[in-house]
């Protein structure tokens, strides 16, 4: 089912006021794959005004021309509009500048960067720190030392914010000595996804859903973020993080908050984040017994699938041993009247059977069976990626069967078809929101703290091996014990067709 009028997603929009945007770590993979393509897409839509400067800063000794050539190659490979608008790339490149500078070194020569920055203190100035987290505080200190902080300066920090509560506090304290909280933008690219933001619209703009969005109508909630790829080039980082730190502490807890939160008073940064914080603080604390009972961790091993041999994690990593989880599933509850007794399940992993990120809302069955062959209870499935959309399963009379037999049918909406647009990459909204100083899509410090406080007992329990590591064959949905986690409550994972 598709609805809505079709429009061209490249339609020109009004440009924002010219701004300065400094990318710290400008030669890295994130910059070339995500940040510059995001700015290019916004340029194609008319949102980048004349006079804007996108300044790359890194240690590599490059000229503006050499950096622009490298950016051009990245745009040709990763920008969605590059093939349809190749001439736009040449028009976009003059907005890019490059500075050879270690921005974590306050005593380096900052003259070139300072000369590029506009001296109008009312102009938006953004520093996007796309480096290792250990450099966040030195970079903030160096920016302050060189007098580059104005009232309209923003500092964007990539996740992860620390590896535990202590390191997160150290980063936030160090950055907070130089930047006010309203100037710090902790980015979580999941919040930039249109489909994640649409959770708010579905819930709070559709009374028919909000009125059944509670324990009286909902039996359980499943959140799955599955990838078919292995760790790839991220192996060295991933082996120090694992699935819990890499996906749950930030992305999936944020998704859970949007699903479970109470309606905010207004769609403002303060109100929205206040409600998310309440959910984080209402999560049932994980004890050692809870970690053993309600969490599962796994690591993929080599397996044959689709006629090819898929390497295991240790082969991908190139090491003989590792205690890092590449997959996990967990069960939790939210201690609020709305969600009393409703289990929330989170599952995420590498080398799974299919790539998908989705939320499954399972409704409670009828208290008494009117029909003898009633299908399983209804499901509302919110597809975050890759097939962005929403589907609702309903029981309908089967016109091909004799008598009054029922069959499950689907009401399905594909968002790209419904709106006739290319769904933008999550960084497009996030970068422009940072320029505008809008923190709605960013994480507040107390959210980071609350998330780490909930996650740390799991990390501690795993370090003490209260829940031993399991293995699963690459190309599957994880260890068999994950089915038992739900079966204990009378549920099963809602799997999409392979």
UniProtKB/TrEMBL annotation:
It holds the Pfam family G6PD_N. It catalyses: D-glucose 6-phosphate + NADP(+) = 6-phospho-D-glucono-1,5-lactone + NADPH + H(+). It comes from Acetobacter estunensis. GO terms for cellular component: cytosol. GO terms for molecular function: glucose-6-phosphate dehydrogenase activity; NADP binding. The active site is at residue 251. GO terms for biological process: glucose metabolic process; pentose-phosphate shunt, oxidative branch. This is Glucose-6-phosphate 1-dehydrogenase. Residues 200-494 form the Glucose-6-phosphate dehydrogenase C-terminal domain.
